[in-house]
Amino acid sequence: MTIDAAGSAVTTADAVDVDVASTTSSSSASPVTAKTLSSSRADDDGLDMELSCWERLAINILRQGSVPEHVAFIMDGNRRYATSHHLPKVQGHRYGYEKLLQVLKWCLHLGVKYVSAYTFSVDNFNRSREEVTYLMDLASSKFAELGQHNGFLERHSICVKFWGDLSLLPPDIHEKCIELEAKTSKYPAKATLNLLFSYSSKLEVSQAVDKAIAAKSTEKQQSSGARLTWSDIEAQLYSAGTPPPDLLL
């Protein structure tokens, strides 16, 4: 499966400013004007993110039903988006990152506790050197931006976890991933963002089996004829401790 760095698969809800026409009554001499409805919102959760009136309306409607605990996104289409808009292909990845943040904001407003985003596959390393270099540079700058003091993650108490073989990444990117995980793990997490970065499902299962076998050996259970179970393997997956997705997009 080929996955782009962040996706345009999610429908854009464009910010809309609404100006209500001035109204007068038979007894009023001056017009009353209502300005933009896309003002900052301060919830009980401390969210202070701007939402358009249409976004707010959609979120309020969705809240009336069952809100999923865990939503996962397979992000794809950045390059196709760029091509269709006559842009350099790499520019599509930058727009994809911006879309990821917008989607994360929507999820926070809805009360979703876990968001998983498939952002970069191990197979993506087979792309052109120019594109891979651009993606790594983009990841480096955005990870630093997300992790800065009073940045997006800290303001909203979001824990980041990386799911993938980080050893395949350039050393500086690998280090930034480790630092971002460690830093956000100290936040009183209101939500968790799982970034599938340098990820392959086959590689994950293979590594989980190896770790499960090693754990059995350490426990000296091999000699007693103990068999490896799915629970043993599941405990070694990147997703261990995370509820399965309720919704996959």
Automatic annotation (TrEMBL):
Cellular component terms (Gene Ontology): endoplasmic reticulum
EC number assigned by the record: 2.5.1.-
Molecular function, one GO term: ditrans,polycis-polyprenyl diphosphate synthase [(2E,6E)-farnesyl diphosphate specific] activity
InterPro entries named in the record: UPP_synth-like, UPP_synth-like_sf
Pfam families tied to this protein: Prenyltransf
Transmembrane segments: none
NCBIfam families from the UniProt entry: uppS
Keyword Transferase: yes
One annotated GO biological process: polyprenol biosynthetic process
Region (Disordered), start-end ranges: 24-44
Similarity-based family: Belongs to the UPP synthase family.
Keyword Transferase tagged: yes
Highest taxon listed in the record's lineage: Eukaryota
The protein, known as: Alkyl transferase
SUPFAM superfamilies documented for this protein: Undecaprenyl diphosphate synthase
Gene3D superfamilies on file: Decaprenyl diphosphate synthase-like
Keywords (A to Z) from UniProt: Transferase
Compositional bias of kind Low complexity: 24-34
CDD domains: Cis_IPPS (cd00475)
